Amino acid sequence: MQEKLRNHIEQIVRLTNDEFSFICSLFTTKEYKKNQFLIHEGESVMYAYFVVSGLLKLTYTDGTGKEHIISFAMEDWWESDFPAYFTQTKATMSLQCLEDATVFCLSLENYQKLCFDIPKMESFFLKKSNLGFIGSQRRILSLLTNNAKERYEQLLILYPALFQRVSKTQLAAYLGVSRETLSRLYS
Amino acid sequence: MQEKLRNHIEQIVRLTNDEFSFICSLFTTKEYKKNQFLIHEGESVMYAYFVVSGLLKLTYTDGTGKEHIISFAMEDWWESDFPAYFTQTKATMSLQCLEDATVFCLSLENYQKLCFDIPKMESFFLKKSNLGFIGSQRRILSLLTNNAKERYEQLLILYPALFQRVSKTQLAAYLGVSRETLSRLYS
DNA sequence: CGCGCGATTGAGTAATTTCAAATCTAGTGG
DNA sequence: CCACTAGATTTGAAATTACTCAATCGCGCG
Questions:
Q1: Chain A 166-185 residues whose Cβ is under 7 Å from strand C
Q2: Assuming Cys at both sites, which of A19, A121, B6, B75 could form a disulfide with A15, CB separation 3.0 to 4.6 Å?
Q3: What would the pLDDT profile of B10-63 be if each residue is shown by its tens digit?
């Protein structure tokens, strides 16, 4: 199972067996059931998570109680409430399972140790972070530029797998429209 | 003038004089006048820019000719069409001066050299990238959660300086509403 | 003075939301 | 095999919000 993480990292930097053993020693493994929370709004954020299997959603609940989905996290994705993780403050978002999931957990302390002890891992995280930033900008652009229907179709092209796995209600919360409007779109 | 860059970097990592001299040797300086383009859609993206002074906007023009502002870049900000910069492909965005500007230019080659030769700079860029990612996520959340009026007020709180420097038309293009709608908001 | 640019206002139109009701679907137990 | 239920999805209709297009206003500058 650790091999999944290794393959993932080695798509960007090469690792020796010793290095990878060390890396593994800094992660713990956890299993969650559908609907369980990995991060609960208002509580401390202990870990960043690497998703081995399953599907998560990162959400924010606004003042009126409406839930918005900042991102989905599937296999091979990293996810956390990063603002809270990096600053060690309370979560403003929640991270919850849409399917049973297995994740590797990395504490901030171990993240820093990883960066410090294995410079290659710092390169790895830098690349990942840049890609994450670029992805977020693409999403901003999509929200600014496209209407709900176009956003829906873009998402369908970008992540076709999602449509088998999440309800339209969840997709609507990601796209930023009401589920009724989304339902009326594909006519 | 280089001191601005040094201060900026040293807010995150400490530098020796030698290190900083080397860093400086990898940047070139350029001056632009208001309305000039640093990056033009469809052309190659040679540099990432550190803004010494002035104000830039990163824009995307959609199929109907409407311009959307992905971000403003003021003093001490890094900006580029990063997707095109990192992959050395043609720009899909444009970077243009809203005010006369002085920038330091960093080629991708020199960026990589910087990361490779001075690991501290890799740490610096990782931290910056994480902050950029977090900022983008905040913006996504704001677009999903808040209506135009709330977004306007948040922006006002976050970057009060912008309001002295940018026309309402530009602000509207950033907030994702028409300038007429923005005009009607603050009643 | 008059031009040009940005900001504002008005009126009609289009898109989206909200709330409520109806329909569909998968799983359960009889 | 069928009835039943919970959850998700769809539909309807009214209300709200934002957009477009056009006209007007305000101001600085040659």
A1: 176-178, 180-181, 184
A2: A19
A3: 999 999 999 999 999 999 999 999 999 999 999 999 999 999 999 999 999 998
The interaxial angle of helices B148-158 and B168-175, nearest 10 deg, is 110
* B71-115 confidence digits (pLDDT tens): 999 999 999 999 999 999 999 999 999 999 999 999 999 999 999
Residues 100-159 of A with CB under 7 A from strand D: none
Task: Compare all CA atoms of chain B with the CA of A66 and give the residue at the minimum distance.
Answer: B145
Out of A86, A115, A130, the one facing B86 most closely (by C-beta) is A130
A2-145: CATH superfamily: Jelly Rolls (2.60.120.10)
Q: Which of B86, B106, B137 to mutate to test the interface with A (most CBs of A within 10 A)?
A: B137
Of B82, B143, B176, the CB nearest to A133: B82
Global confidence as pTM: 0.94
pLDDT at A157 over 70: yes
